[in-house]
Design goal:
The chain has helices at residues 13-27, 41-51, 60-84, 95-105, 110-121, 136-148, 164-180, 194-205; strands at 2-6, 31-35, 88-92, 128-133, 185-189. It is α/β, with parallel strands linked by helices. The longest helix has 25 residues, at 60-84.
């Protein structure tokens, strides 16, 4: 069972991934938790380049290729092995994020991104993608509060520094993709209280608990 969590900055993905991980551990369900970018050793180095706020000179095409490189390594080293061993795989962002951030957000060619994603993923996509949706202003307020609580050395806020219009395009891109893929996407209200949202996610996933796909 391959599940991805998607959403704009500050939507609460990471918190919900952590809560789901605890739930699966409590049930004794074998699972792997990972993220993009940064799900492998090489990916962590790529993540540092992508999210470092001092790298504001990075070209959009460079950014796009770095995400694709991270994903190709991630598929080979983490995702495919986890699925072949019939473990649940929980991923904090996947290829849809590249479509919305580099496509809708950066105005890169969507058809080209689709081809690049297909190459990098080797056709492997989540069975279920949970889109945690909230107004851009809400998400950015949360994200910037988190950044204020983070040491300067560990900051990863290059995207949070983008203007409001960029983040609005990203949110609209996510909602478009979700509407185009109703068989895979479920849109959830990320303004709900943390525990309430977790319970909604658990209710969605309970029917899959006996699956091995």
């Amino acid at each position: 069972m391959f599940i991805s969590f998607e959403g704009i900055e500050g939507c609460g993905k990471t918190t919900q991934v952590e809560l789901l991980t605890k739930y699966l551990s409590h049930l004794g369900i074998p699972h792997v938790v990972t993220r993009e970018p940064g799900g492998t050793h090489l990916g962590k180095l790529i993540r540092q380049m992508l999210l470092d706020p001092s790298h504001n000179e990075m070209e959009p095409l460079t950014e796009l290729f770095l995400y694709a490189a991270d994903r190709a390594q991630h598929i080979a080293q983490v995702i495919r092995p986890a699925l072949e061993s019939h473990q649940w795989l929980i991923c904090d962002r996947f290829a849809d994020a590249t479509t919305v951030y580099q496509g809708y957000g950066r105005d890169q060619d969507l058809a080209f991104i689709q081809r690049l994603n297909e190459m990098a993923t080797q056709g492997i996509w989540p069975r279920l993608s949970l889109l945690l949706d909230c107004p851009v202003e809400v998400g950015l307020d949360r994200a910037r509060q988190r950044i204020m609580e983070t040491s300067l050395e560990g900051r990863e806020d290059r995207f949070e520094q983008q203007d409001l219009a960029f983040h609005q395009r990203v949110r609209e891109g996510y909602l478009k993709i979700a509407a185009q893929n109703p068989h895979r996407f479920v849109v959830l209200d990320a303004t709900l209280e943390v525990e309430q949202l977790h319970q909604e996610i658990v209710a969605l996933l309970n029917p899959y608990l006996t699956d091995t796909d």
